[in-house]
Amino acid sequence: MTRKLMELVPLDADHLPILSKWWLDPETKRWMGGYPPEMALRLAADPPPEFRGRRVIDRQALVVLEGGEPRALIDFERYDDSSAGLGIVVEPSVRGRGVGRLALHFLLGSDRMTGVARAFAGIEPDNIASIRCFEGAGFVRESQEPDEEGIVYYSYESVRH
Q1: Residue 28 lies in a domain
Q2: Residue 92's pLDDT band (boundaries 50, 70, 90)?
Q3: Residue 107 needs a FRET pair 20 to 30 A away by CA distance; which of 24, 65, 77, 158 works?
């Protein structure tokens, strides 16, 4: 299968009708139900000042376009300790085809990650598709046991430091 050119564009209100349809998918609803794309847009415009003791210095919600078509939504937050937290939702019709892994690679290699020494993602242990996506992009599991919120963290070192 030939891949079409990927690009990252900021999420805007024009994307919401397409992305909102992804939340009709049972798997998207299961893992992301309480975090619709409208919330990602609001948080990118007005990020919280801190997250778990880290000062937030930037927050972006990016639509991953492949051949001009939205294929994923990546939400990321940069912190004052040179780290960044990432989350991704892949369009349901293209899941299992490596789109999420390629999108993460594309972001990790982009100028948006300059100065980031460590990227991480918190994933619920039963979310096998997300685990495979992040591991396929080179993220490594940090612990065997979930934290007090039931989340396991995966990290990627030396992003664009």
Answers
A1: yes
A2: very high
A3: 24
